[in-house]
Design a protein that fits this description.
The protein has 7 helices and 5 strands, in the order βαβαβαβααβαα. It has 238 residues and is of the alpha/beta class. The chain has a single domain, classed as Rossmann fold (3-Layer(aba) Sandwich).
């Protein structure tokens, strides 16, 4: 008799960038049945959503949902407001403080909606590709944030309080460097040419090569010894 293994649904927050794509590959490799959740939130780099769709299909997400939330109504970020995206010539120039590309409460909002979908699906697990090593200083990418949200999830849902279904917020990249993330994803068969990380791409989706995200991404590929598949705009090389 063939044993039928029940599916293990998991919600994966998918931006179409390097980290969230790796996170989706990890969820699949760990035996979860992933559903992908992306957001059109008024970001200037909305080209990432086309990448998210390609990634979701290539990595076997059984469903890919794009939710519209216009965080640009609040502004306050270079990604959602008329604020120039910071550019640098070298990764060593990146500052230690919270940069202007931080979107207020973005991951809190995204995880809240991921939690809602997980509860409806009967899923116990939500994956998010936050990273506290090679990142831009965002407060909602730290282990403290992930742990706090998981605690919230388990007192704020009927799934946990009424049905005893403990919810997990999984952040498998939280303590990995960019080179480690790229090496792991490469072993899992991720095609990083599908991904977009740039905060200020041109109309064709080509990377600027000088924003925080471009510089960290390029350094990651170089240190991992993996060819950088990023499409840069003319004359721009991170």
């Amino acid at each position: 008799m063939i044993e039928v293994v029940p599916p293990r649904p998991a919600v994966v927050l998918l931006s179409g960038g390097l980290d969230s794509t790796t996170c989706l590959a990890i969820a699949r490799a760990q035996g979860f049945t992933p559903v992908a959740l992306s957001f059109r939130y008024g970001q200037r780099h909305a080209v990432e959503l086309a990448s998210a769709a390609a990634v979701a299909e290539a990595l076997g997400a059984v469903e890919h949902l794009v939710v519209d939330i216009d965080l640009s109504r609040f502004g306050g970020s270079a990604l959602t407001d008329d604020i120039e995206v910071p550019k640098h010539d070298h990764v060593d120039e990146l500052g230690d403080g919270v940069p202007s590309t931080y979107v207020p409460a973005r991951n809190t909002v995204f995880l809240s909606l991921g939690l809602a979908w997980a509860e409806v699906l009967g899923a116990r697990d939500i994956f998010i590709g936050v990273n506290a090593v090679d990142y831009s200083g965002y407060p909602d990418c730290r282990p403290e944030f992930v742990a706090a949200f998981e605690s919230l999830a388990n007192v704020a849902t009927a799934a946990a309080t009424e049905h005893g279904r403990r919810l997990r917020v999984r952040a498998p990249l939280i303590e990995l460097s960019k080179p480690e993330i790229i090496s792991l994803g490469s072993r899992l068969g991720v095609d990083y040419s599908m991904t977009v990380s740039c905060y200020d791409p041109d109309g064709e989706g080509r990377a600027c090569g000088r924003c925080d995200s471009c510089l960290l991404r390029a350094q990651g590929f170089a240190r991992a010894g993996v060819a950088d598949p990023t499409r840069y705009r003319d004359g721009a090389v991170a």
